[in-house]
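Suppose you are handed a protein chain with no further information: no name, no annotation, nothing but its sequence. What can you learn? This example shows the usual starting point.
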Amino acid sequence: MKAIGIDLGTTNSCVSVVEGGSPDVIANAEGERTTPSAVAFTKDGERLIGTVALRQLAMNPERTITSVKRHMGTKWRKSIDGKEFSATEISAMILRKLRKDAENFLGENITDAVITVPAYFNDMQRNATKDAGTIAGLNVLRIINEPTAAALAYGLDHGDPQMVMVYDLGGGTFDVSIIEIGDNVIEVLSTAGNNRLGGDDFDERLTDYLLDVFKTRTGVDLSNNNMAYERVKEAAEQAKKELSSMESTVVNLPFLSQNSSGPLHLEETVTRAKFNELTADLVQLTTEPVQQALNDAGIAASELGEVLLVGGSTRIPAVQAHVESLTGKKPASSINPDECVAEGAAIQAATLESAMTGNNALMPRGGELLLLDVVPMSFAIETVGGVATRVIERNSTLPIHYEQVFTTAASFQTKVEINVLQGERPMASDNKSIGKFLLKGIKRAPAGVPQINVSFDLDANGILTVTAKDLGTGNEQSITITDSERMSDEEIQAAIRDAEQYAEEDQARRDAFAERDEATRLINQAEERIKEAGKDMPKEEKRTLKASIANVQRYLAKRPEKRRIRTRRISRAPWMS
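A reasonable first move is to predict its three-dimensional structure. Written in structure tokens, the prediction is:
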């Protein structure tokens, strides 16, 4: 059984598998090499995923969800028909489609996968991504960083020792990593980024500009008109793409609104220069992470052997020019920015699957590539005075085991709360709290006497586990993780059941549509036979056949998912051999 690699993106997702030693991107059921990360709920209860969801976005904006990746690991919820969905559950729907497309392509069941995340995702976001994979029916072998996956894909064909920078500007996140390639080892030296910067922000700038143009000319504000807003936003995204290869493009949206004078249209020529002006500060926001990554790696830009551009937003000419000005190097064009992350994930998946099964035939060509990744942000603990006391430094190589002895701050404490933080700020309140661990049952003693050994284990996924042991008694104490933003095991299991239920309903719906098509074919065939036979067909036979046609047509008038269509009476008609 093959393992797949999945790039779960903000705007688009991609799935790949290693065959014959090389990664191949798997086209989806619609024949596309990438799948829009969009989920829609129709009023009939159907769930649409991918391109079909995007097609109806303008007409159904309130029930269509895009860019959900930006909400991973948060309390975000979307209510549809009285049921609330988390970002994890919506992502699981996308992953389930990718898994199904891979199974159809490979002709076998798929369970094992490597899924990528932005390098700057924190512990909660990584856990949420792993949970989404579980809900989708996947055994997540590894969570790896997107820039690292891109370097794996590049390193498969460019194994000469060198330093590379991976500049990853996707739909919703930005990462930059400095990676050393050599002797079948891919070692991440440093990483930096911004989880709130991506192509969506570029789209928003152009959308706001077009809305302002329309308001200035017509006096009508479309910002609260959801359908019109989505049309403008969709046109802005298309214009952005066109401006990557053209100096200007025309946005033409008829019948956007109306007033007492009649319909109102929008037609505006947007130049690349104007787009660059609107987004110049967004491009500039990538400067600091690039410089931080170089400084943390301890190298100068001149020492880079190659600069790799990853993510669809790196097609913007102003972005490419900015990267070249920062590094003094023209970015490489040897990898596909939309597909290389999934390909790298597939390489890692094949390597892990080969190691687990001992089947060297699954191994990527050139043998095993050893991946040494890093933790993107520091881990700290809140101590007296609200100080964030650093325990694991950012850019430490994974996996990591760290132990530290703590004690009580007050006399006769029987429990201690440990607030684990992720971030780089000196004060606890300025960092992200990823879990509060409550150690209970401490023997009453003066302050400073109890010795509590707390160990931190960061696995290869960058996910943290904390355990504690009372050195005075030698007993390990239980720890309760009070992280309200992560799904509980019960919620995950409920989501799995829900996904399986809808998978069955989707199959039943597909079966119903297949029967509907077959019934329509038989009706057409029966009507054609009646026409051909003319007066030669006995009147009683003709009356029976027409009654059967009418009966089936009544069924076709009903919703196919509510009523299965019976076609046997027509199929047994004597005039339909």
